[in-house]
Specification:
Elements: E1 8-13, E2 25-28, E3 37-43, E4 61-63, H1 65-71, H2 76-82, E5 90-95, E6 100-106, E7 111-112, H3 117-130, H4 142-153, H5 157-166, H6 169-177, E8 201-202, H7 204-215, H8 223-227
Antiparallel strand pairs: 1-3, 1-6, 2-3, 2-4, 5-6, 7-8
Helix pairs in contact: 3-6, 4-5
């Protein structure tokens, strides 16, 4: 890692733009319509860095660190902690009470999922069983339930590989993700020497969308599937 502070940006999806406390100049894209995405990008003078693209379309103005800090009090503690750490970080925070979403991005996007893709694999199987006659979980075969439980509660790679392969592999998981939808997730495919799913790449925004599919009412998973 360079001795200068790495790039960190915060995007706020909603009516009000969020900012980030950071060493260096900040640019604010201004207020954007509901559902649009705006960016606040930190650009330390010691490095030549590109900011995350903004689709807000609003005029830009400069803000100082104090103003930025005050604008993002829901994530101030996260930012304070991240300032003490090195490495690439992506954090997504959704406030259900306000409907606001904060995305903290540092470094190159996207990143490898490793085991967090297991929640996505589980969601795909739940979608399959809710689409067939019967109920969840009574009509899910014990063997599939066993693999699901081991994959999630113990992060069992063998269980994940089994569910990934017999669920249709990268093609089926990619197809499922279009329903959520995810925009930057690329599912890893099996090769002659590797089971594939661990090479899936994703972003904080996509992972938040997957978790929200499991946690909140939506058109992808039924309440019974989510409860399981």
């Amino acid at each position: 890692m360079s001795s200068s502070r790495p790039f960190r940006a915060v995007r706020h999806v909603g009516k009000v733009v969020a900012a980030v406390a950071f060493l260096g100049a900040l640019t604010w894209t201004g207020e954007v319509p509901a559902g649009a995405t705006a960016t606040i990008a930190a650009k330390p003078t010691s490095r030549n860095l590109a900011s995350v693209p903004s689709t807000g379309g609003a005029p830009s103005r400069s803000v100082d660190d104090a103003e930025a800090t005050n604008a993002v009090s829901p994530i101030r503690g996260i930012l304070d902690y991240l300032h003490t750490r090195q490495g690439v970080v992506q954090v997504a925070l959704f406030d259900k009470l306000t409907g606001k979403t904060f995305l903290i991005t540092e470094g190159t996007r996207p990143q490898y999922t490793a085991s967090i893709v297991k929640a996505d694999i589980l969601s795909m199987w739940l979608k399959q069983y809710q689409s067939t006659p019967g109920s969840i979980p009574s009509d899910i075969p014990y063997s599939i339930q066993y693999l699901m439980q081991n994959m999630i509660t113990m992060s069992d790679n063998v269980a994940a590989t089994s569910l990934f392969y017999f669920g249709g592999g990268c093609a089926k998981l990619t197809e499922f993700n279009t329903l959520i939808p995810t925009s930057e997730t690329k599912v890893g495919c099996e090769t002659p020497t590797y089971y594939g799913w661990g090479n899936t790449t994703t972003t904080d925004a996509d992972q938040m969308a997957i978790v929200k599919t499991l946690a909140y009412d939506n058109n992808v998973l039924t309440p019974t599937a989510r409860a399981y």
